[in-house]
Amino acid sequence: MDPNNEIIVALDYGNGPTAEDLVDRLGDECRFYKVGLELLTAAGPDFVRHLVSRGKEVFLDLKLFEIPNSVAGAVRAAGALGVSMVTVHSMGGTGIMAAAVDAARDFPDLRILALTVVTSMTDEDLADIGVSDSTEEQVLRLARLAGKAGCHGVIASPQDVSALRGTLGSNALIVTCGVALPGGTPFDHARPGTPRAALAAGASHVVVGRTVTRAQDPAAALRLVHAGLVV
């Protein structure tokens, strides 16, 4: 197990300089970062190019949910930036996901991940939008749809990993958000778990956010995450 290949630090900041400062502070402790809509909107694609130029891998969390042609265009733009992963909404259906997968074929190192159910959502939230099944049932349904569309993996909560691994098999990527150290705060996530538990259940990657990025010493906090994975 190499935590540097499995831990993704979320750069959930509203400006480039603050994100850059964290990358500098973590140095060689981290090689994989998530860039979401907030940072991409604030700092633009040049920040992504900068991370890639520094030898970092980038998980571009766009959560694409548009007509297939627009999704394909966004995926090609992401591939041109040199990112390793990009997300689409599985609730957009097979057409959107298949368009993303097809657009990624020109970029051999680009992986398309389908977001199943957002980790802040509960059964009650699903009911609000007319979904009567539980979050676990909906996650598995959407994951199967993503697999049929050719997606390389899914985004899900730590609590979904075991069932997903059994459904998707050993080769699929399962990237989990909503992780925190034991006793830590899950923040906005309704279905959290620890990094160690997520990986033990079969996750390929775990995304850590404020557990590291809001710590007084982010590098020390990331080392705690790493240590928790190898004990």
Entry summary:
It contains twelve helices and eight strands. The protein has helices at 3-6, 16-26, 37-43, 45-53, 68-81, 94-104, 123-128, 135-149, 161-168, 195-201, 210-213, 218-230; strands spanning 7-10, 32-35, 57-64, 85-89, 111-115, 153-156, 173-176, 205-208. Strand 1, helix 2 (16-26) and strand 2 form a beta-alpha-beta unit.
List key phrases describing it.
231 residues, alpha/beta, TIM Barrel, 8-stranded parallel beta barrel, 8 strands, 16% strand, globular, OMPdecase_bac, decarboxylase
Write structural notes for this entry.
The protein is of the alpha/beta class. It has a single domain (3-230), classed as TIM Barrel (Alpha-Beta Barrel). The protein contains 12 helices and 8 strands. An 8-stranded parallel barrel has the order 1-2-3-4-5-6-7-8, surrounded by 7 helices. Helix 6 (94-104) packs across helix 8 and helix 8 (135-149) runs parallel beside helix 9. The longest helix is centred in the middle third of the chain and has 15 residues, at 135-149. It is globular, with a radius of gyration of 17 Å. The model has no long low-confidence stretch (mean pLDDT 89).
CATH fold annotation: TIM Barrel
Averaged pLDDT, please? 89
Major beta sheet summary: 8 strands, parallel, barrel
Q: Span between N and C termini?
A: 11 Å
Radius of gyration: 17 Å
Number of domains: 1
SSE pattern: HEHEHHEHEHEHHEHEHEHH
Q: Unreliable segments (pLDDT under 50, ≥5 consecutive)?
A: none
